[in-house]
Amino acid sequence: MEQPIYTTRAHVFQIDPTTKKNWVPASKQAVTVSYFYDSTRNSYRIISVDGTKVIINSTITPNMTFTKTSQKFGQWADSRANTVFGLGFSSEQQLTKFAEKFQEVKEAAKLARDKSQEKVETMSNHSQESGRETPSTNQASSINGTDDEKISHVGPEAALLQNENELLKSAVEQSNTNAKKWETELQTLRENNARLVDALQESSANVESWKKQLSACKEESDTLREKIAELEAQCNEGNQEKQKNAQLSARVQELETELHEKEQELENLRKQAEIIPQLMAECETITAKLQAAETTNKELEGRIEGLQLDVEESQQKQGNMKGELKKFMDILDGKIDELHEFRQGLSKLGVDN
Q1: Which among 79, 84, 2, 80 is positioned nearest to 40, based on CA atoms?
Q2: 288 Cα distance to chain centroid
Q3: Short-list 132, 139, 141, 59, CA closest to 102
Q4: DSSP string spanning 145-195?
Q5: Using the 8-state DSSP alphabet, how is residue 34 labeled?
Q6: End-to-end alpha-carbon separation of the chain, Å?
Q7: Residue 306 exposed, middle or buried by CB count within 10 Å (0-12, 13-18, 19+)
Q8: pTM check: above 0.70
Q9: CA gap 43, 41 in Å, rounded
Q10: Which phi-psi region, left, alpha or beta, contains residue 6 (left: φ > 0; alpha: ψ -120 to 50)?
Q11: pLDDT tens, position by position, 333-345
């Protein structure tokens, strides 16, 4: 029965089997990773299950090595699974504890292997000693008597020794077979170790290239930040120009409104100026009538004084009217000059804008 001896949580990765360089995530999120101990086989395994899928099933051998590649990431190579496993932890303490447990389990697996080898060597030596003792026993029996005497005298002991010898021979053959298997496995492990060393060197080279790319990205990021700051400053200047343009546009609208009011006032003055010719015509008519009255009143000397009073009143009114007309013309000239200066200022403002 296997029992868990240590459990943690981590993100599981496997090396890309085609490139042997890139990591492929084996789990979408952090999963449980456990050390298991099999008391019957005296072996240790790392097992991780994501749902119903086994993503890590790695038997720990003394030749394995757990390597920390960063503060929160570690990896080890499994030659039997022909892959490299990677674990990403949430903290450096979890990675350190997992690495320490890996070293402990590795040492325990090494002790178990040494004990099994000592046991096999002991059985092999025992079988060799039994093989040496069996001929001497047979020789002694052949010297002491005939075959019938041997069978009758030492039959049960010889049969027991023969059975033990057969068992030892089978154990020796089994140990030789296991030795050959172990030699083959050792050669495979050496080859896989060489591959893993190459992969580790490539991963180290990739780390250096990634560091260079990261520094280049940081420099590019700093350059982009400076450009963004410059663009923001230019945008601020553009916003200020927009505000100035908006203020100038508002001022132009105000001036256009004032110009429209002045034009309306000028139009009213023009309408009033149109009345002046009528007044002049009326004045001329009155003058003509006055002249006719003077010619006609020569004969009417008796009524001259009354008409003279009328004429004086008429002349006084005409003088007042001429004075008012002169004042009106002066005012109109002043308004026209103001309008002309206003137009020149507006034109100058439009050119500046």
Answers
A1: 2
A2: 102
A3: 59
A4: S-HHHHHHHHHHHHHHHHHHHHHHHHHHHHHHHHHHHHHHHHHHHHHHHHH
A5: E
A6: 92
A7: exposed
A8: no
A9: 5
A10: beta
A11: 888 988 888 888 8
